[in-house]
């Protein structure tokens, strides 16, 4: 099946899609950083206003909409195997923004020791992004409704979907019935849903672009089917990611989720849209090398992120009775104001419960000084 356009048109479409994806991921990272900064600024200033009453938060919201819109349109031009790994640009941008917003000052040796892995990860991610974009698949097709239907009814696609459904149901059984709350299982469920999201988003985006060009595609039933699949898969992905954030650190989730979701999307693009059919062995190997460098770079960036400090017992002074109180583990959460806030898409800890002030524990009754003094004085001998 020859699904490619002319080489020039295909190259131009890939370039447009790649630039849109890079631009969209950068905007999303900046928007999340602005929104996080808005929350931190309100908390630091003890401003009674809600976050949605600030201009900074709304500016970040607008940028997020623009970024996601650019990402959505990019699927109509570039292959899924190129757009999906470009999510590393968002992680790279978040890391750079985190260093820009960093308030601490370090000497060069201390900075290199603490952030050397992140810097190396940024270099590897940048190099890997260039390699897999340069050697990625250059095939592209007009995603008309009839072409999408032909893809779906192919035996290899049906076999792929059957294996994916069986794997998803098996993982879901272990997760729900056996209580296997392992990070890999949760993120594998997210990755399998992500492959469906990538296939459906590319189909919906392609048909919308053709409709905008004057070739109506919205009346075909396949458009409604793909749109429903897109919305449903995104909703369930968000639910599984929310559950993962309650159990594991966000930096670990970001790195593992990028690797699994990208791998699943690349396989889905190769099977469903034949994106590697016209590629030679050298280009495929270089694409895999670039993807591997991105995986390693993202892993180093997220691994070097500052972890949340473990709870330690602490002593507070009861201002009413003047009695020191030792708070045991598990009763309260110690507030941490020493640089615990961070910025960017990878360090969004909105799912973590906010720190609470120490709870006043039940104290023994305190007697007056006069009574204590009376009982504590030794009795005087009478003459």
Automatic annotation (TrEMBL):
Pfam families given in the database record: Mg_trans_NIPA
InterPro entries: EmrE-like (IPR037185), Mg_trans_NIPA (IPR008521)
Protein name: NIPA-like protein 3
Biased amino acid composition, Basic and acidic residues: 369-383
Membership in a protein family: Belongs to the NIPA family.
Primary residence: membrane
Example GO molecular function: magnesium ion transmembrane transporter activity
Membrane topology: Multi-pass membrane protein
Keyword Transmembrane helix found: yes
Gene source species: Channa argus
Superkingdom classification of source: Eukaryota
Any one Gene Ontology cellular component term annotated for this protein: membrane
Disordered: annotated span: 363-383
Keyword terms: Membrane, Transmembrane, Transmembrane helix
Residues spanning the membrane: 15-35, 56-76, 82-102, 114-133, 153-175, 182-212, 218-240, 252-275, 281-301
Localization (cell): Membrane
